[in-house]
């Protein structure tokens, strides 16, 4: 590990100005950042430790929603009664990720910002545009079993690894930040992540020094069924090959509303309004579900060893919709 | 910097890069916690920090200034074993023993989590989870045992959780290898 300057933040305001300098990073749970620092994939010159800041509460808002402090650990968030009651998909997604030890340390904000587990991003002996911009992508034409089939570019086919973020995408979460200039921003999760395009090293819209302070969830959807289904190579403690987060409301046998987000498919938690449009107002049936899968996967493209994800996602979505709709 | 480890106060100045695991092993002589992968994948380094099980390889000593830490050495000693240590001995919950300190610290932390009512990925209900073999396996999935002593580890944890012995699995002769 390269050495770095360590600072414990005295306040969120000073943390943002401290971290706005080139090469500086925030650290909270550290479960991903320290892993990457040991491999010298990340080599920050300064770490700003935010763990002692008062950003670890979960608060109910007057509008019926929930505000989750950025430092709330994944395990505490999964066990929070208000989350289990109103946002079961989030609790389920969190419990499907990582291990007990990691969930005890990993934070809400950090989980949103974790980096891809692409083999080549981790292998510093091989080119990777995300790790070393301009060096090339080894995954295209290489081992890409775990990588993306949607939203890719000819520079990068990495997937975003989070389960939690997929549930938050289905729940229309908003990310609240504090910038180094003192401004606060509220960023819809739909606008938070960036596609790789020509610059796969830039993964979110966050600016230097901008600190996630909280994640807001809107009021729970009334009468909804929740589901998080994750398909992986072993039964526990593995990243998703594909996953579905679903929040569906039925009116008899007709789909009244549907919010569906997907993991393991793309460089960000994936959501496509066309999938939901294929469902809402329709009779819950395999024909309807097949149309939703068609909409999701119309632009999907495999890279050889990840081709299987396309039919796997199709079957996983259809099975999930049967469960969500009772059809 | 200072830490309270196993009830004893330690004061040291270490490089900012020092993990909590390396602090214990290399600087304080507490070598019970083991370094397996050093990347949070194997669980051999599991310690209880402020009562919660964490991977001590994936956190910095400097970030835990002032914290209370429990390692396998503090959990019990020869002649005064923790119930989980005794159960691992009784049920032979290991072969080489390298993962055992992490397994035991993790199991102690895990049972506290279960006592608080925390559910797991294996729980049918998020509000009414009951420990059973599938739950124990899921909740302990962050601890790898290369010797695959898993059935005996589950037995040891079952005993401390008050679940008693597993039902023996009977396989009819004709089914073997089928």
From TrEMBL, chain A:
Domain FAD-binding PCMH-type residue range list: 1-222
Alphabetized PROSITE patterns for the sequence: FAD_PCMH
Signal peptide start-end: none
One Pfam family cited in the UniProt record for this chain: FAD_binding_5
InterPro entries xrefs: CO_DH_flav_C (IPR005107), CO_DH_flav_C_dom_sf (IPR036683), Diverse_Substr_Oxidored (IPR051312), FAD-bd_PCMH (IPR016166), FAD-bd_PCMH-like_sf (IPR036318), FAD-bd_PCMH_sub1 (IPR016167), FAD-bd_PCMH_sub2 (IPR016169), Mopterin_DH_FAD-bd (IPR002346)
Assigned keywords, A-Z: FAD, Flavoprotein
SUPFAM superfamilies named in the record: CO dehydrogenase flavoprotein C-terminal domain-like, FAD-binding/transporter-associated domain-like
PANTHER family: ALDEHYDE OXIDOREDUCTASE FAD-BINDING SUBUNIT PAOB, XANTHINE DEHYDROGENASE SUBUNIT C-RELATED
Name the UniProt record assigns to this protein: Xanthine dehydrogenase family protein subunit M
Organism encoding this protein: Sphingomonas mollis
Automatic annotation (TrEMBL), chain B:
Domain 2Fe-2S ferredoxin-type: 1-75
Top-level taxonomy: Bacteria, Pseudomonadati, Pseudomonadota, Alphaproteobacteria, Sphingomonadales
Database matches in SUPFAM superfamilies: 2Fe-2S ferredoxin-like, CO dehydrogenase ISP C-domain like
Pfam families per the UniProt record, alphabetical: Fer2, Fer2_2
Alphabetical list of InterPro entries matching this protein: 2Fe-2S-bd, 2Fe-2S-bd_dom_sf, 2Fe-2S_ferredoxin-like_sf, 2Fe-2S_ferredoxin-type, 2Fe2S_fd_BS, Aldehyde_Oxdr_Iron-Sulfur, Beta-grasp_dom_sf
DNA damage keyword on record: no
Protein name, as recorded: 2Fe-2S iron-sulfur cluster binding domain-containing protein
Keyword annotations from UniProtKB, A to Z: Iron, Metal-binding, Oxidoreductase
Stored PROSITE patterns: 2FE2S_FER_1 (PS00197), 2FE2S_FER_2 (PS51085)
Annotated organism of origin: Sphingomonas mollis
